[in-house]
Amino acid sequence: MGYSGSKPDNISVKEQRVDGSWCINPVPKNKKLMHLRCTLMGFEISYQTRIPSNLINRSSIRYYSSKPVQHCKKHNLTMDPWFLTGFVDAEGCFTLGISKNKYGKTGWSIQLFFSLALHQKDTELLERVQNYFGVGKIYKHGPQSIILRISSIKNLQVLFNHFDKYPLVTQKLADYNLFKLAYNIIINKEHLTQGGLSKLVAIKGSLNLAIAPELESAFPVVTKADRPLVTGVAHKLPDPNWLAGFATGEGCFYVVGQKRADLKTGYSFKLKFSIAQHCRDEALLKSLRDYFGCGNLYKNR
């Protein structure tokens, strides 16, 4: 169970993927026979696609902008709200940025933003998220990735309207609650005082489990804010669409081959599906096992 909490701005790597998109005909005379070839694609940020149905040759060119994309509206590509919550549970990131600013009243600048980063081949999915919220900007983010970012204080209210109605299920709910607490401090203008700034530094220390050395030295007496674990009813799957969204972000479908001298082909193959999470979400993985009625839980060393 590797760490899968909210991702920092630099994309973390959780697992490797396989590309099962290449089909060839091993018997030319029989056009019905197809052979699936799976190739290890490397780290998550380099994978070709998560969903085989997405392997469509799209020739259209997309331009990244701040407006909800017309492509989605034209084709009526709606998104189930629980699917979106499940996908954000997997891939979303709530970030509180605190950096020095000599022109600011307190000497520091504060920024809140929500982000979703995906491989560029999942551009359409990210456009659908942007279209659902009706706010945010999509940027090029690295050689093969793009990112949706919502940072305007006014636009962030759209997030709260959604997640208060369709709440997160994983430990990311704790990140969301801390993020919302920081938002309220800013809305009330407390961040313009030293007391409010210290509160934000404390929240930053618990949000995404990271705080810069610069902040630690500038605020040595500030301790991290309490970060409650998400337990109990929150681990019950709220809707099948949530699971579909979560598996879109965290699920891995792959083929395992093994040499077998006792078989005519010399190999045996198994199909596997897996979801890896931080050990704090062990109860959630147990809920998934109960939901499917199968599967095993393993400790990832």
Q: Count the domains.
A: 1
Elements, N to C (H/E): EEHHEEHEEHHHHHEEH
Low-confidence stretches: 1-28, 31-65, 69-75
**Global morphology:** elongated
Largest sheet: 4 strands, antiparallel
Tell me the radius of gyration.
22 Å
> Percent of residues in beta strands?
15-25%
Number of strands: 8
Task: Could you tell me the CATH topology label.
Answer: Endonuclease I-creI
CATH class: Alpha Beta
Strand order of the largest sheet: 3-4-6-5
CATH architectural arrangement = Roll
Class per helix and strand makeup: alpha+beta
Into which percent range does the helicity of residues fall?
A: 25-40%
Report the total helices: 9
Which helices and strands occur, and which strands form pairs?
Layout: E1 16-24, E2 35-43, H1 70-74, H2 81-91, E3 92-100, E4 108-119, H3 123-133, E5 137-140, E6 145-150, H4 153-165, H5 172-187, H6 194-206, H7 213-218, H8 240-250, E7 251-259, E8 267-275, H9 282-292
Antiparallel strand pairs: 1-2, 3-4, 4-6, 5-6, 7-8
Helix pairs in contact: 2-8, 5-6
